[in-house]
Amino acid sequence: MQNLEQLIESADTLVSLEEVRIGIFGKKGVLAGEFAKMKSVPNEEKKEFAKNLNIQKANLTKLFEMKKSQLLEASLADSMKKDGVDVTMFNSYNESGALHPVNETMNKIIDYFVSMNFSIEEGPLVEDDFHNFEALNLPKYHPARDMQDTFYMNDEGVLRTHTSPVQIRTMMNPDVKPPIRLISPGPVFRRDFDVTHTPMFHQVEGLVVDEEGKISFAHLKFILEDFLHYMFGDVDIRFRPSFFPFTEPSAEVDISCVFCEGKGCRICSHTGWLEVLGSGMVDPNVFKAVGYENVSGYAFGLGVERFAMLIHKIPDLRSLFEADLRLLEQFR
Ligand code: DAH
User: Fold this and answer.
1) Can you tell me which atom of ligand 1 is nearest the CA of 136?
2) What is the pTM of this model?
């Protein structure tokens, strides 16, 4: 049997291996011949004889299978070299991707407001001074513009510093009449760069306008509380008086710190609270700028990266834009 093993080993193509297979394992092959000898073996030796033969057969079969897969691999490699890529080969590398945490958070925000019957509006990223500032009650040289220092294209063109100009564009659109119930998601730009700020980030704006007396602060409070519970789960929520030129009264909204559950930690500056959005009743000067009369409304604006950061407990907001797979793969 020694030379049978050598015979298998020496086959150097699939064709010659097939000949060897027939010679050894075939109907008229060596093994069949050996098994035929059983007849002439004395009874008391039959068992031992058969056992030996079966062991040898098993060994030869194993050797044959190994050789066959070696030759198959070699012939595949050879044809790949000659023909280039084998497009019929099964691709077992099949990792699925995932949404970026900013997109995922954006989608969740949009889902909430769409379920509440808000429409989605978009505006240009390169705005003009009127829509980005003036119509929002931020006159030229007003000190409140300092909070939104940004990139100017020339005297008029400006990379929008917030999504609020979409409020103006929608209300000035002759095809749109109150009641209005919109959100406006999209990128905005500011001259900022630290652990909680990047020069480009995303906001979602909200605007609700209806006849005078129909929209109150209670409506604003209800929707934002419901929304924040949807996003952050069981957190405490507080409305804190604030100032925005385009709302009066204005409120900033805080949630109890998701890192320390309100006990106080470094991230919430030991206050137990985290600011998550700005809001208020639309300032009469804004309605005046767009030519609306006898209406009431509320508005709000939030930063999507900040939401993503708090939901996923990401310590440095800038890491959302580093495209580092070690971070992103955690969100698959
Ligand atoms: N535009 C504000 C900002 O970027 C956010 C904001 C605050 C929007 C209050 C609003 C609002 O609509 O009512 O800082």
Assistant:
1) 1
2) 0.73
